[in-house]
TrEMBL record:
The keyword Ligase does not apply. This is GCN5-related N-acetyltransferase. Residues 120-254 form the N-acetyltransferase domain. The keyword Lyase does not apply. It comes from the Bacteria. Keywords: Transferase. One of its GO terms (molecular function) is acyltransferase activity, transferring groups other than amino-acyl groups. Pfam families: Acetyltransf_7.
Length: 254
């Protein structure tokens, strides 16, 4: 399933990146990079997926040049679980391990009930700006940090979900279908509405829809904090991915 996760991740970014003004996909031999100039400090939106270690080593210099030309200050490379060669390559190149999300997968016929919580209104067509704002708030980012990176979420390959509590946007997520796999991205809950099981119940509704579209599996990358939530719905760990931030990136301000 880790191959399914990474192939879907690549296609997700291929659909999302070009939709933002100035965004593009850079294809090298064995390496795919996604450039989002409207979110220059967001490495999650300026990232590299690779198939071949030698191709990545050869591509690091042109990749750095491409991101500099786009005025992107934070970009990173994904590595797979237990990829000792990729890890060594990143360290030798001066990249810094930014985060290690857990890759997770679920067979949709094994989806579990999410538990109970306060009521919310389910919106299956929220404006992409609402998804943007909730992700900025949930991640403690200044307003505008994600720029117009989510403009492409209007495309039919994406399915947007938002939970409204008393007409206020409270939690959101986005799904993306590739083959018979449904990838989950941009899960966020406004800090004011956390600990109400909103994200889990919203995701359950989205996964039921995915199963209705004929999807058989679901994959995602989980934060440390979110892993328990996903395991409660039946997701299983695949191992920790590496997010290797370029050493040229300036440090985040407190």
């Amino acid at each position: 399933m880790i191959d399914t996760l990474t192939s879907t991740l690549r296609e997700f970014y291929r659909a999302e990146a070009p939709a933002s003004p100035g965004g593009r996909v850079l294809e090298l031999d064995g390496v795919t990079a996604f450039v989002t100039p409207t979110a220059p400090t967001q490495s999650i939106l300026n990232c590299v997926v690779f198939d071949d270690h030698a191709a990545l080593a050869d591509g690091l210099e042109p990749l750095a040049s491409a991101y500099r030309d786009a005025a992107v200050t934070h970009w990173m490379v994904w590595t797979l679980p237990d990829d000792a060669v990729g890890t060594a390559l990143m360290r030798d190149a001066g990249h810094i391990l930014e985060y290690e999300p857990m890759g997770m997968a679920l067979a949709l016929d094994e989806l579990r009930e999410p538990g109970e919580g306060p009521p919310f209104a389910l919106d299956r067509a929220p404006h992409p700006v609402e998804i943007t704002i909730l992700n900025e708030r949930a991640n403690g980012e200044p307003p505008g940090s994600f720029g117009t990176a989510f403009a492409g979420l209007r495309e039919p390959c994406f399915h947007r979900y938002l939970a409204r509590v008393e007409d206020h946007p409270a939690a959101c997520l986005v799904t993306f279908d590739h083959g018979d796999n449904c990838m989950i991205q941009w899960v966020a809950t406004d800090p004011r509405y956390q600990r109400r099981r909103l994200a889990g119940r919203l995701l359950h509704a989205a996964l039921l829809d995915a199963r209705g579209r004929g999807m058989r599996t679901s994959t995602l990358e989980s934060s440390y904090e979110g892993q328990r939530l996903y395991e409660g719905l039946g997701y299983r760990p695949l191992g920790r991915l590496g997010m290797w931030l370029t050493g040229d990136s300036p440090p985040e301000l407190p």
